[in-house]
UniProtKB/TrEMBL annotation:
This is Cytochrome oxidase maturation protein cbb3-type. The keyword Transmembrane helix does not apply. The lineage of its organism: Bacteria, Pseudomonadati, Planctomycetota, Planctomycetia, Pirellulales. The keyword Flavoprotein does not apply. Coiled coil: none annotated. Keywords: Signal. PANTHER family: FIXS PROTEIN (PTHR41532). It comes from Stieleria marina. It holds the Pfam family FixS. Residues 1-21 form the signal peptide.
């Protein structure tokens, strides 16, 4: 019976910490975009085979 004096407050504190963390994440915008991250896995990134200038044109050979 004396275990309840330790386990019950500990369970309540852990539950409150979980709810607080969830509310913080929701207000911080963690769950705003739920569609893009799963789609990023399906898209292959193209590797550049040669260096290019910032405007996308290949460098000129002098």
């Amino acid at each position: 019976m004396s275990v309840l004096f330790i386990a019950l407050p500990l369970a309540l504190l852990l539950g409150a910490a979980g709810v607080t963390a969830c509310v913080y994440c929701i207000r911080d915008g963690q769950y705003d975009d739920l569609d893009s991250p799963p789609m990023r896995i399906l898209v292959d990134e193209q590797k550049k085979s040669r260096p290019e200038d910032s405007d996308g044109t290949p460098p000129s050979n002098p």
